[in-house]
Amino acid sequence: MENMELAKWYVIRTYSAYETLVKKNIESMISLNGLQDSIFDIAIPTEEDIVEKNGKRKVVERKKFPGYVYLKMIYTEPLGYLIKKIRGVSGFVGPEGKALPLTTDEVKRIGLEKITAADFHIEIGDNVRIVSGPLETFLAVVDEIYADKQKVKVIVQMFGRQTPVELEFNQIEKLAN
Prior knowledge:
There is one protein chain. β3 (about 45-55) and β4 form a beta hairpin. About 15% of the residues lie in helices and about 40% in strands. The protein is α+β, with helices and mostly antiparallel strands. It has helices spanning about 20-35, 75-85, 105-110; strands at about 10-15, 40-45, 45-55, 55-65, 70-75, 90, 125-130, 140-145, 150-160, 160-170, 170-175.
């Protein structure tokens, strides 16, 4: 696990609706080939969406980026070759199909890295800006912090009313005073 600092996030392109299958196949490849020291995390970012069907509201989980799977790994050519040969993978995202790591800003925007409670420096009553999700760019005030779930409840001024909204740590940023 000491190699974790060298790992970067990479994006692989998959065939439509193959994301979960690709993730399972990569997990199998990791255990069969002993690649735990090279591939550290596999992510398929999702978001909750409210759908109304037959007059009933239902919360469904949707993929934020259909057709893509994110890997935190130490990239090598042989490892890249193994990943490209997995059923459902069409290649890495990058120039000419070459693997290109995501920048720190991109990782933060996508929400791949969870913010730990120790790294979270926002307190109740702080003014924040929502940086992702349907309320992106809205300003809010922190009402409650749920460190165990890595979520906060904020109050957003919307349509002339104060509306409580629950968000993840990585969906907000503190405004400078």
